[in-house]
Specification:
mainly alpha, Protein Binding, DinI Protein, Chain A, two-stranded parallel ribbon, 79% helix
């Protein structure tokens, strides 16, 4: 029992300086999902990506349509076609499918890469805004809300971050 009491006093003595330091620490939280969803620059980035990839999307849809047309032709005319014609049509379909898969994969890779670049640009703006607000309001620590078990809603500075980023445009 004596050992338990000593341990409790020792723990309390070690925690006292930490508690005093924490009392002077100013903390805020941010909700990254809310910030990303409400950024005006996000819409501009999405529009840029749509414009950049619109031609390739159109090309993929046209190729997919051609492949479907060939499938329908094969199903409809199969009984009337010679073996050579069937073979030629099957090879044409296979070649177009291979081309489609390659173009789709390249499109997906390029789109993902460009999306990540745009997100990194937005993230840099968010970091800058958080840093600016933290310096202005003298916050010692700003945590993402999803990294905390609990935080008072009054600690959330997400709206302030959005306003700061909106000023940057």
């Amino acid at each position: 029992m004596k050992k338990l009491i000593q341990t409790a006093f020792l723990s309390a003595a070690l925690m006292a300086p930490t508690a005093a330091v924490m009392a002077d620490t100013s903390i805020a939280t941010i909700d990254m999902r809310v910030i990303f969803q409400q950024l005006p620059q996000r819409e501009a980035a999405m529009k840029k990506l749509q414009d950049e990839f619109a031609g390739r999307i159109k090309e993929l849809k046209a190729l997919e349509s051609k492949i479907n047309d060939l499938y329908q032709k094969r199903e409809k005319d199969q009984a009337l076609m010679s073996d050579d014609d069937k073979t030629k049509l099957n090879r044409q379909i296979e070649a177009m499918q291979t081309e489609f898969q390659l173009k789709r994969k390249n499109f997906q890779d390029d789109h993902r890469q460009e999306t990540e670049k745009e997100q990194q640009k937005l993230l840099a703006k968010i970091q800058s805004a958080v840093s600016t607000i933290a310096k202005q309001k003298h916050y010692d620590l700003v945590l993402p809300i999803d990294a905390t078990a609990y935080a008072k809603p009054s600690l959330d500075i997400s709206k302030e971050v959005i306003n700061e980023i909106s000023k940057q445009k």
